[in-house]
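Table S2 (text version). Query chain:
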Amino acid sequence: MRRKDREITDSNSIEAFIQKEQIIRIAFYDDGDIFIVPVNYGYRKENDRYTFYFHGARAGRKFELAKSSPKVGFEIDGRYELLEAEIACDFSAKFQSVIGTGTLSIVEDKTEKILGLNCLMKQTTNKTEWEYKDEMLNGVAVFRLDVEKMSCKAK
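Corresponding structure-token output:
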């Protein structure tokens, strides 16, 4: 990170930020193209390692790339506040962001699918326990992103 003065290394501050936000952007490499998709997420943190979960269709570009090109980048941003000034070049902004890389997989195990969906629902509703019908579980793809590298920055 070029601006070390803006780096956040406190794990509690990073988790508080991740816990508050709702959208993660996943960046896939697609045979010379970059494909970025914003999705709702949930997460788990165990032994200082993050795992993000999100869901989608069991077909389409995201699903196929998760199988064929599982190394991805990701980004979460928030806390944006415009800092106005008298002249254009003096405008700035406050923000916070997390960026990183990891490996994506498609969850097939029913128990972990439910865990991933419950993480997602907790992020959205703050409720931790949900019930899912088998036909819904069979029809949805649950994606697991195991974080390998991550950094956090704020201004």
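Notes on Table S2: Residues 110-125 form the longest helix (16 residues). Residues 35 and 61 are 9 Å apart (CA to CA).
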